[in-house]
Specification:
The complex is a heterodimer of chains A (83) and B (417).
Chain A (H helix, E strand, L loop, with lengths): L6 E5 L2 E5 L5 H6 L6 E2 L5 E2 L12 E4 L2 E5 L10 E3 L3
Parallel strand pairs in A: 1-7
Antiparallel strand pairs in A: 1-2, 3-4, 5-6, 5-7
Chain B lengths: L1 E9 L3 H11 L5 E4 L20 H13 L1 E3 L3 E6 L2 E6 L2 E12 L3 E3 L12 E2 L1 H9 L8 E6 L3 H11 L3 E7 L3 H11 L3 H13 L5 E3 L2 E6 L6 E6 L2 E6 L2 E5 L2 E3 L2 H6 L3 E2 L6 E2 L12 E3 L8 H16 L3 H5 L2 H17 L15 E3 L4 E2 L9 H8 L9 H9 L17 H5 L2
Parallel strand pairs in B: 1-2, 1-6, 2-3, 6-19, 8-15, 9-10, 9-15, 10-11
Antiparallel strand pairs in B: 4-5, 5-6, 7-16, 12-13, 13-14, 17-18, 20-21
Classes of the chains: A mainly beta (83), B alpha/beta (417).
Chain lengths: 83, 417
Amino acid sequence: MNAGADVLLEVDGIPISVPDGANVAAAVARATQTFRRAVGGGLRGPLCGIGVCFECRVRIDARAHQRACMVLARPGMRVQTRG
Amino acid sequence: MAERYDVLVCGAGPAGLAAAHAAASHGARVGLIDAQSRPGGQIWRHDLRFGAGRAARRAIAAATRGAQWLGGAQIVAAEPGELLVERAEGAAHLGYERLVIATGARELLLPFPGWTLPGVTGAGALQALVKQGWPIAGRRVVVAGTGPLLLAVAAGLRNHGARLLVILEQAPAPRVRRFAWGLAKTPRTAAQALRLRLELAGIPYRYGEFVEAAHGDGRLQSVSIRTPRGLAHLECEQLAVGYGLVPNVELAELLGCRLDRSGPHAAVATDARLRTSLPGVYAAGEARGVGGAAAARIEGRIAGLGACGQEAAAARLAGAQRGARRFAARVAGCFSLDRRLYALATPETIVCRCEDVPLGGLAGFDDGRAAKLATRCGMGACQGRICGDILAALGRYAQPAAAAPLFPVQLSTLSDP
């Protein structure tokens, strides 16, 4: 099972806990289905899961356009979606 | 930061790991880079609950013992003898004598009405997400698309507690059965396939069926399934749908390596010793055309040996490499796509998800550059990777060539001397 302790972070102000080694996408998915809003207004979430499509991009610790699937969840991270 | 390597390997999947291990074990100073934070690539991606399989653990241990591991490194720009990469700690220039392109492949994602809804992902995509903690326990999942990958994905999702409703294989039953019989000649693969099939016992595995549309209000709630008997409807929270793989050739293209454009998707062209058209640059695995993990491992070894001057040892692997590629060609033949899948998108269906360009908006264009300038199709953050693969599969036109920066970057990376 999980090797380490759970990681506590914040998604849109909501405290979220994920297993150690989880990525930010896993944390966001526990808070909302919507990661971003497309230019036409549609709601979007991860598509490719491997850093190619950029559909899962979110703001992490004030850095915009980070791919949630490519970044490991770290304690105290503040993640913002554009839902 | 600037480093120099005798051999620099790009991509830490089966091919890259084998290349790094082979070169390092002959005394070369080897760098192994990957965009992911852990080695393994896609097929050997670490599962935070179940770890990695034995083959993966061995390959990773062997490669990282001898080579310098540089994870989380996104290649931004490349020129002969040097790569510019971006890592969390900043930009780095990596110099090399020999380069091995082991950049692997990505999934082919075909558009259909509703495919932009949150909850719709690629098939390998959902597997990758779940391995890194995506909540799936208790969720109703439909797995669809084509190929042996669907079984592996389904088994993985089930191990993580997903409520797997059905697996939809688009290939017709007689073709898949012929393929399964052919597996009897390669017992190890047959055993693997059989094990997966057994793990999934009780879960319907349907042939000749595909998802025609996804529905939901702001998120996936149901799918329409085209069956030989008509249209069926199924409620679900996740749809994992993948139609095969597409080689990642952007790095090779940026360097100026010759590409093989004989198929719908470009692949890196090499000679039998896996040398590209550029001196000192090798390519191995899926980047040369999708051939599976077994071929990738052998080719990685061939490239790694060649890159450190072990030509005779590399040549001895030629027979095994050809055998693995022959098997991959049989797989591809069995799981070739039903033409109806290319006609699922309506004029309103979005093709370029970055810029929200619908298929109808591209009517009349037969040139990628003209379409891009007029509609912004392919101009977004993914740089035309997703829509480019689609338009190539649909036989519309090829995307304009890859250019630096290969991925969106921090300005500081580009200004770093």
